[in-house]
Amino acid sequence: MPDTMVPKTFSVFAEGYDLARLKADAFAGLTVAIVALPLSMAIAIASGVTPDRGLYTAIIGGFLVSLLGGSRVQIGGPAGAFIVLVAATVTRHGVDGLLLATAMSGLMLVAAGYLRLGQYIKLIPYPVTVGFTAGIAVIIFASQLRDLFGLTLTGAEPGAIVDKVVELARAADTVNWASVLTAALTIGVILALRRARPHWPGMLIAVAAASVGVALLQLPAETIGTRFGGIPPGLPLPALPPLSLDKLVAVFPDAVSFALLGAIESLLSAVVADGMTGRRHRSSIELIAQGLANICSALFGGICVTGTIARTATNVRAGGTSPVSGMLHAVFLLLFMLLAAPLASYIPLAALAGVLSIVAWNMIEKPAFMALLRSSYGDAVVLLATFLIVVFRELTEGIVIGFALGAVLFIDRMAKSISVGETTPLALVKPGNGEKEHPVVADDPNTVIYRISGIFFFGSAATVGTVLDRIADQRRNFILDCSEVPFMDSTAANVIEGTLRKAERSGVRFIITGARSQVRRTLYQHHVRPPRVLMRASVPAALESIRAEKTA
User: Fold this and answer.
1) Average pLDDT in the chain
2) Are 49 and 302 in contact (CB under 8 A)?
3) Domains of the chain, earliest start first
């Protein structure tokens, strides 16, 4: 098996794993587990499922992502980016449909890993990733407004952000000030600890403080216990979700969305980890691990699993050195669940909403967003289009349209980068027969030299073709220098073939110089080959051919 398909766990133990590294990984794993405990429950609640499913996801998915993945420090679990998609899937198909879509997305990710598709995920333009991340953050915050203010709605909360805000505004007279106070306390403690004690687990401390305050003061704020009845003290037995052909077809689009977002999020997190550690992840096996983690998470009643940037960064900063820290983080979460499950009933939902509000704010890459708005018109259009479509339409649609706009922008920029024009290089020609070298300048009235510089592809074919058509029948000898063309596609080759036909009708000798192997192969496939054209290694060689013919 090639190294790119070997989990990093195997590589770490092959290098040698000692007690010192185990201690470092244990401390990092405990630190990440403390961060992941309230966050996993908050994400699950915001996704429209019970909080225990978030813990199942972090325990099962987090363990497998670390054990089988292609990054030494990646931490897997439920992610805020999936809240919108998961909530919509639960609304349309129920929890059983969600579990089925999660398992199907896992199969897709495994296939993507074996097909080595991870390298293509990395081609998504930077403005698209910044735009959809900011859009997700806005939607996450909007989804927390109900619990932040303790609002009481007469019906189900709408999914579309505009309808949601309108419905919440109508319920403004039902504000629960105990919930507002609890959320404000949670946010305040997190921000204060981040400034005064950045290495302390601010989120867990804030949630614990809010829980104690609500319980002691007997504030009328809704808690996990009052809404969900608490969480079970352990994992359920694995079970397959109900299967039917109709259900498979119905949830297939959701599964595709899960797989696409999971691949983007996990590989983006792995890239961030690479930048922090100086290591390189293995994208193919990382996708396979994410896929298997999603399949097993669904079997245990969990939701979507992906690599999480915040928890991965926490792992690195806490001193995690290997996948063992990620596996221990899952073990610590399981211990918390076994030993402290009854205490979870006292956690106020407003406190978890405060946690997610901070997460949403941190998700927005504010300096990058503003820099892209100022950088260029094209990047700003891609960024804003992705952001607005994610917020007001749909996440996957935003990614696809943003990627398409980014591709068009790239094509336009590449098309403008190519140049074609007449040149008069001084060429030293060796005539042979013991004669001296003599300079030949392309000022022969019967010879013209044109040079193409840059990638010659369909985006620039029309511009180059217009230039070539103007001169193809004006001289007896037409030299086309392709030495500065690193790549040529079939559209470009077809343009040259059209120029060649015009030259043949006018009796013009057509010579191509400096063509690289890929360019030559593409030209030959489009019948631009000897004897229709002369192929020479350089312009001097072409001029020598012309001079030799004259003296023959």
Assistant:
1) 86
2) no
3) 3-409 (no CATH), 419-551 (3.30.750.24)
